[in-house]
Amino acid sequence: MALSRLLFAVPMLLSGVAALNAQTLSAIGSGTTTTSAGDCHCALHHPSLPPQPYTAEFKTTQVQVLSNGVTITRVNIEKHAKDAQGRTYLEQQVVRATDRPLVTEFRVQDDSAGTDLSWNSESKTASLIRGPGKEEHHGCWATESGHMRWVYDAPRAPRPAITQTLAPRANAVPTEHEDLGTRTIEGVEAKGARITRTIPAGTIGNDGPLVSHIEFWTAVKLGLLLEQVIDDPQMGKSTRETTLLSLSDPDPALFQPPADYEVKTETAHQIPCPE
Question: Of 1, 46, 215, 221, which one is least surrounded by beta carbons within 10 A?
Answer without folding.
Answer: 1
